[in-house]
C-alpha cells in the first residue's frame, strides 16, 4: 500500500491544473515530487529552500493576493519551527493556507528528536480558527486534502503519517463516525489509531468513534454516543496524550463524566529504534491499550465474547 504522503503530490498537482488559485510552497523537502507540476506552473510552485519561517511567510503573502497555498514539510519544521509565522503571518493577518505535514510524532525515528512532533496539534490548538485533519489511510488523506484546499480561505492542517489502518472509511471532513456500539463507555480513535483500538476493545461493551477531523471537535457526535454508552470517554490520539481531553470535557460540561487521554507521552525517548518500538513505549499498541481502556471503563465484556 502506498503512503498518505505518496498521495500528496498527485492530488495537489491535479488541483494546480484545475484551479488557478492553488499554489504550492516547499522548503526543499518533497520538491522532487513536484518537478512536473513546477514545469507546468512555475509561477505557482515555489521552493524557498531550507527556510521554514519564510515557507510560512511566503504562503501568507500568496494568500493575501488571493491564492490558496498548500504548504508542505515535516511536522516539526511546519508547525514548531515557524510557529511565530503561523501565529502572525496567517493568524494575525487573517489569511488561510493548507499546511500538510509528514513524519507525524515519530514516523522517522532515525531522524532523531528534531524530526519528531508529537506536540503539533496541541500547539495549533493554542490558536483560533484552525481545522485539523488526521487521516488514518491514504484514501482518506486524498479526500481530506481535497476538502482542505476547497475550504475557501480557511486555515487547515492535514497531518499525514506512515502509520495507517488496513482499510479506509468514508470521511466527510467534519464528523466522527460510529464504528461499533456498546453501553459501557466511548472510545474515540483518532486517525491511524483505529486498528489498534478495535483490536484492543474486542469483546468489550464499548462504543468506538472514528475521528479524522479533530478540530473543530465533533461535540455533538460525542454527546450522541454518550447518550447510549455512558459518559466514560477514552481518547486515543497519535500525538501528545491529552490534546483533546479539554474539548471532550467541554462537549460534556453539563454532564457528570470522566475522560482519559491516551497518546504520546512527554518523556523523550533517546534511542532511535523503530516506529513500532515507539508505539509500544508510549502504550499505544493494542495490548497496552486493552489494559488501560479496560481498567478505565471497568470491564463490561460482551456476553459470549472474550
From TrEMBL:
Transketolase-like pyrimidine-binding domain location: 2-167
InterPro entries: PDH/Transketolase (IPR051157), THDP-binding (IPR029061), Transketo_C/PFOR_II (IPR009014), Transketolase-like_Pyr-bd (IPR005475)
Lineage: Bacteria, Bacillati, Actinomycetota, Actinomycetes, Kitasatosporales
Official protein name in the record: Transketolase
Highest taxon listed in the record's lineage: Bacteria
GO MF term set: magnesium ion binding
SUPFAM superfamilies: Thiamin diphosphate-binding fold (THDP-binding), TK C-terminal domain-like
Amino acid at each position: 500500500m502506498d503512503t498518505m504522503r505518496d498521495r500528496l503530490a498527485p492530488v495537489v498537482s491535479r488541483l494546480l491544473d484545475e484551479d488557478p488559485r492553488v499554489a504550492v510552497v516547499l522548503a526543499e523537502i518533497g520538491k522532487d515530487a513536484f518537478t512536473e507540476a513546477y514545469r507546468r506552473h512555475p509561477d505557482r510552485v515555489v521552493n524557498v529552500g531550507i527556510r521554514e519561517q519564510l515557507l510560512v511567510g511566503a504562503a501568507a503573502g500568496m494568500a493575501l493576493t488571493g491564492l490558496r497555498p498548500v504548504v508542505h514539510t515535516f511536522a516539526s519544521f511546519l508547525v514548531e519551527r515557524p510557529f511565530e509565522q503561523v501565529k502572525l503571518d496567517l493568524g494575525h493577518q487573517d489569511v488561510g493556507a493548507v499546511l500538510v505535514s509528514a513524519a507525524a510524532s515519530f514516523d522517522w525515528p532515525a531522524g532523531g528528536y528534531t524530526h519528531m512532533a508529537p506536540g503539533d496539534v496541541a500547539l495549533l490548538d493554542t490558536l483560533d480558527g484552525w481545522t485539523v485533519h488526521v487521516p488514518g489511510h491514504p484514501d482518506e488523506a486524498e479526500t481530506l486534502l481535497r476538502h482542505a484546499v476547497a475550504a475557501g480561505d480557511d486555515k487547515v492542517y492535514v497531518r499525514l503519517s506512515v502509520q495507517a489502518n488496513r482499510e479506509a472509511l468514508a470521511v466527510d471532513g467534519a464528523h466522527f463516525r460510529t464504528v461499533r456500539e456498546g453501553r459501557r463507555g466511548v472510545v474515540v480513535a483518532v486517525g491511524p489509531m483505529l486498528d489498534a483500538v478495535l483490536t484492543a476493545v474486542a469483546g468489550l461493551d464499548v462504543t468506538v468513534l472514528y475521528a479524522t477531523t479533530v478540530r473543530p471537535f465533533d461535540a455533538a457526535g460525542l454527546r450522541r454516543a454518550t447518550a447510549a454508552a455512558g459518559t466514560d470517554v477514552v481518547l486515543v490520539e497519535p500525538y501528545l496524550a491529552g490534546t483533546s481531553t479539554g474539548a471532550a470535557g467541554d462537549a460534556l460540561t453539563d454532564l457528570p463524566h470522566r475522560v482519559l487521554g491516551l497518546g504520546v507521552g512527554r518523556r523523550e525517548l533517546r534511542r532511535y529504534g523503530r516506529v513500532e518500538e515507539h508505539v509500544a513505549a508510549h502504550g499505544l499498541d493494542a495490548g497496552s491499550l486493552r489494559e488501560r481502556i479496560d481498567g478505565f471503563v471497568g470491564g463490561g465484556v460482551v456476553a459470549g465474547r472474550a
